[in-house]
Amino acid sequence: MDYPDDRKYTDHDEWILLQGDVLTLGLTDHAQDALGELVYIEMPEVGAVLAAGDAVCEVESVKAVAEVYSPVEAEVLEVNEELDGNEELVNSDPHGEGWLVKLKVLDAGPLVDLLDAAAYAAKVAEA
Asked: 28: closest CA among 18, 16, 39, 20?
């Protein structure tokens, strides 16, 4: 799997696309593959303020339930309404239409610790 070079990646298998102070967050192809077919996503409230490391949302698949974490202190700007009843978009297009939330970054400091695409691909290959 090729991971898009325009994003950063977390150790929790999330991808981050930063545009100004707006961060789009989603699950990587590796994460959706490990989880299997998604059946439900519990989204956060728009306007919620999260600390770095807080759970943003919970994804439920036929195999497991997993938390998706915010890599930074941020405010929830938007949730992907397209996923309501169409959770499989995360499985079919994890790095595109299957994004989860958009966050307004309040403290970008932790972003320096994220992995680039090559480092994330190497990490996944070792797993």
From this structure: 16
When the pLDDT of each residue in the chain is averaged and rounded to a whole number, the result is 96
Kindly give, in sequence order, each residue whose CB lies less than 8 Å from that of residue 62, ignoring residues fewer than 6 positions away. 36, 37, 39
The whole model's pTM is what?
A: 0.95
pLDDT digits (tens, 9 = 90+) for 4-27: 999 999 999 999 999 999 999 999
- pLDDT confidence of residue 2: 82
106: Cα separation from own chain's centroid: 17
Check whether domain 8-106 has CATH 2.40.50.100, yes or no:
yes
59 near 27, Cβ under 8 Å?
yes
User: Would you give the DSSP letter of residue 54?
Assistant: -
Q: How far apart, in whole angstroms, are the C-alpha atoms of residue 66 and residue 63?
A: 10
Give Cα separations from 54 to 8, 69, 86, 91, 126 (angstroms).
18, 5, 25, 23, 27
Q: In the chain, what are the domain boundaries?
A: 8-106
Say whether pLDDT at 126 is over 80.
Answer: yes
